[in-house]
Every structure is written in structure tokens, then in C-alpha cells.
Amino acid sequence: MIDKKREDDKNNNINENIIIGRNSVLEALKSGRELDNIIIAKGTPYSGTTAVIISKAKEKGITVKEADARKMDYMCGHGNHQGVVAYAAMKEYSQLDDIFATAKERGEDPFIVILDEIEDPHNLGAIIRTAECAGVHGVIIPKRRSSGLTYTVHKASAGALEYMHIVKITNIASTIDKIKDMGVWVYGTDMNGESIYKTNLKGSIALVIGNEGKGIGKLVESKCDGIVSLPMYGKINSLNASVAAGIAMYEAAKQRN
Questions:
Q1: How far apart are CA 101 and CA 110, in angstroms?
Q2: Mean pLDDT of the chain
Q3: What's the order of all strands across the beta sheet hosting 35-41?
Q4: Beta strands per DSSP E along the chain
Q5: Which residues of 19-58 are buried (b: 16+ CB within 10 A; e: fewer)?
Q6: Are 170 and 143 contacting, i.e. CB atoms less than 8 angstroms apart?
Q7: Ramachandran region of residue 43, left (φ > 0), alpha (ψ -120 to 50) or beta?
């Protein structure tokens, strides 16, 4: 029974869209494949092929992290990763202009969701799934401190990832400034905001959903045109990020339609 569980764990690990080994990761970088991040085992010398990988990753704006070698063994199903692992995106990322082009093609005002450091891939997948159902034209995520488009995200989205523009950006605050200049009103979500049911969410809008634990960052909050909240009637004063995002998106969809 124990052996079977270990084998199941191993099989689950290799389901992730992982590239393992120095040469394999380097070739993925050279080919231009979309990589969410690269992980280097702690203690690995930053020399030779590893140094080239790190240099090319920085050129492309790909996050490089360090992790314990034993954790990496588990992630790779105990494959020979040589101290270097990359997570490849399940889908090519879109550009910001793609979101506005899709809205224009549909004859609709842009409807955007901005995710401020959503780290749980299950939450990201669930949000993408709801966004597609609610008529959102695109989802924006940051390059750092955010889940990328992993196998788990794809699975949790139930296929919605294939139909949704996902834009990966360097700085959320500057991106908000940019879309505001393009006529989009931006609303953050926070428990101290105005009731979302009293807020006009028609027209060109973006909803900002914060991190699972700390919510929206202060700088991002300061860039928003308004802060909205969901009324709480029980003893718990917060919702799961994907649940809160779903309720907010559907309130906006109701008003827009």
C-alpha cells in the first residue's frame, strides 16, 4: 500500500508541465518557449550551463528561484534534474492589446480581471474558468509572486484557459495607469470598500482581485478608481479568492447585460 502511494505521488508530480535538466531547460529558453519560472537547487554553482540559463532567463524576464534539492526531486518524480527545473506555460501568453481587440470584435466594452499575486494554481484556474463564463475579455497576472499557467491551472480551468487571454506583466500599478488612459475604470476588491451592489460596473471596467492572504497591495489599491466589497452576513469576514472573484465578476456581468 505504501509503495503504491509513492508511485501515485510520483505519477502526480510528473503531470506538471515541467522541463528537467540543464540542457533541456537551456534549449527551451533558446527556442523561445513560454516559461513561467526556472528553479535552481540551493547550493548549485552559478557557472557553466547553469550560468547561461540564469543569464538568458533574466534577459527574457523569467523569474529564477531557488529550492531545496529534495523538494525538486519530489517535483520531478525523482528524475535526474541536475539542479535545474523549468515550469513551461500550458498556453502562450497574450498581449494587452489582444484584450481590447477581442472586446472590439465582440462589440463590447472591455471587461478585464487583474489578479494581484494569486499564488494558488487552483484559485487561478477557477478564476479563469469563471471569467470565461462571465464574458471577461482577458485576465492580467504579474510575473512575480503569482502562479503561472501550469498543468494544475489548466485542469482547474476546465478548458477555459484555451479561450481566455492571459497577459503576464511586470508591474501591476503601471499597467493600471495604462488601461485607465485607455478609458477603463478600475475597481479593487476589499472588505472595507463600498458594497459592490451599489457600484456602477457598466462600461469599460477592470476588477482587481488580491492575494489569498494579504489582499490587494497598497500601491495597487491607490491606483484604483474605487474599492468594492461583498457584504458579509456570517461570523467569517472573508471569502476564498476565487469565490469572491466569481461573485464580483457575475455582478458586473449582470449590470453589463
A1: 9
A2: 89
A3: 18-20, 84-88, 35-41, 63-67
A4: 18-20, 35-41, 63-67, 84-88, 111-115, 138-142, 165-169, 185-195, 205-209, 226-229
A5: bbbbebbbebbeeeebbbbbbbbeeeeeeeebeebbebbe
A6: yes
A7: left
C-alpha cell at 224: 484604483
Amino acid at 108: E
pLDDT reading at 15 higher than 80: no
- Among 54, 23, 28, 59, smallest CA distance to 39 is for 54
Tell me 171's DSSP state: -
What is Dmax (Cα atoms) for the chain? 60
CB atoms within 10 A of CB 204: 18
Note the pLDDT tens digit of each residue in 165-193. 999 999 999 999 999 999 999 999 998 89
DSSP designation for 145: S
